[in-house]
Amino acid sequence: MASCRPCSHLAVILPAAWSPGRAWFPGHCRSPSEAMCNFVCDCSDCSDEAQCGHHGASPVPGTPFTCDFEQDACGWQDISTSGYSWLRDRAGAVLEGPGPRSDHTLGTDLGWYMAVGLHRGKEASTAALRSPALREAAPTCELRLWYHAASGDVAELRLELTHRKETLTLWKSAGPWGPSWQELVVTTGRIQGDFQVTFSATRNATHRGAVAVDDVGFWGCGLPAPQASCPLGHHHCQNQACIEPHQLCDGEDNCGDGSDEDPLACSTFLVSVAKSGTPAVLSSPEFQASGSHNCSLVFYYYLHGSEAGCLQLLLQMQGSSAPQDPVLLRRRRGQLGAAWVRDRIDIRSAHPFRILLAGETGPGGVVGLDDLILSDRCRVSPEWSALQSLPPGPWAQALQPQLSSLRPWEVCEQGQLPCGDLCVPPEQLCDFQEQCPEGEDEQGCGTTDFEAATAGGWEDASVGRLQWQRVAAQEGRGPGRDAGGAAAGHFLSLQRAWGQLRAEARALTPTLGPSGPNCEFHMAYYFHSHPQGFLALLVLEGNSRELVWQAPSSSTEGWTVDKVLLGAHHRPFRLELVSLVDWDSPGQQGAGVDNVTMRDCSPTATTEKDREVSCNFERDTCGWHMGHFTDAHWRRIQSHGPGYDHTTGQGFFMLLDPTDPPARGHGAHLLTGPQTPATPKECLSFWYYLYGPQIGTLRLIMRRDREENTLLWSRSGTHGNRWHQAWATLHHQLEPGTRFQLLFEGLRDGYHGTMGLDDVAVRPGPCWAPRHCSFEDSACGFSTGGQGLWRRQASASGPVRWGPRTDHTTETAQGYYMVVDTSPDTLPQGHVAFLTSEEHRPLAQPTCLSFWYHLSLHNPGEELWEGLGLHAGQVSRRPCADLGRCVDLSLLLLTWAGPGVAGTLRVHVDEGRRRQVFSVGGHGGLTWRLGSVDVQAGQAWRVVFEALAAGVDHSYIALDDLSLQDGPCPRPGSCDFESGLCGWSHLAWPGLGRYSWDWSGGDTPSRYPLPTVDHTLGTEAGHFAFFETGVLGPGGQVAWLRSEPLPATGASCLRFWYHMGFPEHFYKGELRVLLSSAQGQLAVWGEGGRLRHQWLEVQVEVASAEEFQIVFEATLGGQPALGPIALDDVEYQAGQHCQQPASSQGDSTASVTVPAMIGGALLFLMLLVLLGLGGRHWLQKKGGCPFWSGEGAAAAGFDNILFNAVGPPGVREPSSASGLTGSRAGSSGGQERAPPVPACSALCWPCLSQWPSPGSSLLPRMESPSQHLPPAARRPSQTGYPQTLAPGWTHSITRHLAPPQAGPGCGDSEDRASTALLSSDCPLVPSGCLPHE
Known about the structure:
Blueprint: E1 11-13, E2 65-67, E3 77-78, E4 86-90, E5 112-116, E6 125-130, E7 134-137, E8 142-149, E9 154-163, E10 166-173, E11 182-187, E12 191-203, E13 211-219, E14 235-236, E15 242-243, E16 271-273, E17 280-283, E18 295-304, E19 310-317, E20 327-333, E21 341-347, E22 353-360, E23 366-374, H1 395-399, E24 417-419, E25 422-424, E26 459-460, E27 466-472, E28 490-496, E29 505-508, E30 520-528, E31 533-541, E32 544-550, E33 560-565, E34 573-581, E35 590-599, E36 624-626, E37 635-638, E38 652-656, E39 667-672, E40 681-694, E41 697-704, E42 710-716, E43 724-731, E44 740-747, E45 752-764, E46 772-773, E47 790-794, E48 816-821, E49 832-836, E50 847-855, H2 862-867, E51 875-876, E52 887-888, E53 903-910, E54 914-921, E55 929-935, E56 942-949, E57 956-966, E58 998-1001, E59 1023-1028, E60 1038-1042, E61 1049-1061, E62 1069-1077, E63 1080-1088, E64 1091-1104, E65 1109-1116, E66 1124-1133, H3 1154-1182, E67 1202-1204, E68 1220-1227, E69 1258-1263, E70 1290-1295, E71 1314-1318
Parallel strand pairs: 1-23, 51-52
Antiparallel strand pairs: 2-13, 3-6, 4-5, 5-13, 6-12, 7-12, 8-11, 8-13, 9-10, 9-12, 14-15, 16-17, 17-22, 18-21, 18-23, 19-20, 19-22, 24-25, 26-29, 27-28, 28-35, 29-34, 30-33, 30-35, 31-32, 31-34, 36-39, 37-38, 38-45, 39-44, 40-43, 40-45, 41-42, 41-44, 46-57, 47-48, 48-57, 49-56, 50-55, 50-57, ...
């Protein structure tokens, strides 16, 4: 007989007396206060529970009352007393930080949760979140929630329950906590009257203390409702509620008024015996033979704090002359949580008997017993005396472990398994590697046919109304035979139980592991449940519970054989069978498991398949397997719909969808088994797919024993709707025993899009030089010569302290680039430093080599930043949430005019002899610049970058983002998108929602709606840039497509074609063109969405007195609408005015005749005059315009030029840009919109005549009395125009058309450029004047 080891102590608690509670019989929907928030929907619409976390109609009985915080805070309130406090938040609203990257409900950055604000302080603080007032929790009440905490920032988490004047700590933890969401389950039990729950977080001093809570649910907390009559056999309580017979005298107030626990009807008695060195034993008196009736024992037990805790219930019958050996009736071991669990045993015996309860604890554990209740059929023997002790007998020896006779007890230490001449330590038990000659150390480790009473080590851990139990085939519900077809066989079956907590049944294996990558779980099962229910297998590892298999649906009446790949897991881990069926529904509702085997689980086991790294995934995954260290997984799928493989377009590939199925882990792993290197260098090639407006990061990593992981390759963000090939050279040390693993890691730092892998291949020798290099993961094989002057570094940690503040790839201080220090003490004047690539393969066609370079300022040290009143640490390339703490370099693209040059960068192509193809020198700046050159090479070639020093202190030359694209290089600011995005950047900025423009073709399957043809070719084979606005969600987030920096221009033309496709009744999408320079951004063109499935041409006049970028901005004007915005054939014609295109039959837009245009314009002007006269007449009667004058000027219209500044996320502020002019020159087909005109126009503002009329150019400018920096603060205007300026600022507006008649006080009216200067206290738009839409 299996038994537990001796225990140290046993906690016995006296039964508690119940006091009657109050009840309310439901009548009308107007619930009394006692029925509010009591987990029972007394109203048909459940409105009485609306303030307690429940939304919607009355739930099905058993449905938990949950709050996911998606709509509101569900009545939970912050009661903190400091700045460290709780608020409702979501990951998409947070720029950076240690908080969660997604919520738990949706698993994306659009979901909501409660979070502690990232508030720093000088001392420890506590943030408290309190529930609404709740009432009358049932004995089965359980609180479940998910929390996310940053270890190191947080000192303690605590969950408390306040009942009347008493506060009880239900749970507390000081960490450490994992990097993902973790579940907390706490049983509250029966609570009479009002109570509240408080979740609090205490942060360490000076730390931000990032904590989040989501999906708070109360399960099984409602008391039974009153009923006029009860089902047959049920007990009718005094308050008219109905309970089941087994709930009588079970120690729980199931009725709600205590009438089911009448102390006169429920009696208990017991005798406790405990001796040193033996298990703690609790014995009943001796009972009479029960005959044909059952003697029932209801008891509550507590197992918590140690996996070694164990409680056994045994039956000892009295023989004719002496007591018989005890028979084990129930055994529970492990940790069941901090809750009392109810159980019941029915005994039918023909002889007098005793009931024995024996327990043991492990380190730090507690075993408790309470409320032992005997039924009236348990009659004490007349000759028994309460004073007598346990009779001597074999029961004590039966409880002791029966040791092997092969080894004496004193040889092996406690916990070790003796076998042969060995003592196997506990950590080698069930490790899938046999130590004992007969394999005793691997017995009882989950593999079983359930014929032995030990059930293969599976133990029931259920605490609810169902349990797993080994039964004879003919006794259990189901097929009537075991999986082998034997009617006399046994299997693990779902049976009714007496617990009062979680409804599902759970069975656990012993501690297992470690397991190897090929570990498989095989079983036979049957499962029948309708309409709800499940049968699942989970892996428990640390604090995580990973679902690895679930029965697809109710199976047939027979057995079904299945298997699941468990893969590699660390020790310790356990397997858990979980099932739930509606036991009381008609039909054979049930579940069973048989013939469980675990195969190829040894971590040292290898097969020929394990060495197959090269794989096209058509047959299987070869030597690659899924990692199970997170709940996100790669899946091998077949091509269908928008998902297609690279090999054939119809085969299989590996896919990672970050939201399907819902996952919360940080990433998914696809890795090989341990490999033995064959050559010093190997080339790994593969095809990858990164597509979507907010997709994450794909990385390739090499693992070696006892070494840190080596990052070989990485890509982030979308790379267009196509497969790309990549290479990585594997460097090996050919030493005995050297082993390595390859790992593809897909990070879930984006939630809209897909990742794919296909056609992985390994060949001896190094790879060709890569076609793309961002320097984020390595130096891409570039050699720096003997001096090693070129260095790969990040600004935050690099050796060249005066290098670029950010890289070009990520535009952060953590991004990497290559840099050479050209200061005289490192590289004297006239000396050079070379950076040489590995060999590139010969080129079959002309190819564009592009790269981004950064030349230093003359002296870009602290002098520059101090001259601007800044510290270097305040400079960021990303939008700033706090303009008082940092400056956005998108607004501060300054150039330094100091004397001297930084040096010269030359580019050579080496095909055996070098030829120079590019050279640039002179002054640097604070921005990266694009260099490109056409390359033709009929043989293997290298690219060589040469840095020539100019002898200037603190100077440097840097490189980043090298790329080879087929075809000739496009002109600056131009792209036909046939080979990619050219020099246009689609970097996803956190402040804008982390969304990116994408790239695709009409004939490529896509999960997003796309134009069917491009504009360049006019066919499905062409390509274009696009953005799907439907992923934005509410909140007004945007996506930017930015050109390279372009030089100042007096007059240039931007020409492009765009395509929109939105439902006619939405009109939500919007495309705008912005000019971004050092002083801000100016919107020079904008268009709202229409249902126009055609390409339309736009030309925009562009002028700027300083360097600038063109930005295409895609956004929503309201609620989400599924529809794409596409761009094609962008052409920037430097130094040329726009020419109105002549309409032709082949144009995509509809032509409009000149008479029709003139007639429409005249009609529009007439309508404006009538509206102006009517408004003037109305205002004269009302006298409502304080600035009105009878001699006011005629109203001048606004051009469709919008103002915008990069400010805090979600705030659309107006701004100005110095030196920028722009107007809409024309749009084919006469599609120009009427400009917005203020309703009051000149009647409300005497100087409004100085605003430009439609078609004029505009030069707005913000001028500061001290510095040319963005204003520190401006109030956002609901109208889209500035309301007031910051003190000390003036707003200058210049127009370049003949002004209309001037208003009073507006200066002259000569036919020349006029300027209106408005002081900081002058409202730009008077109160009450709103522009027309």
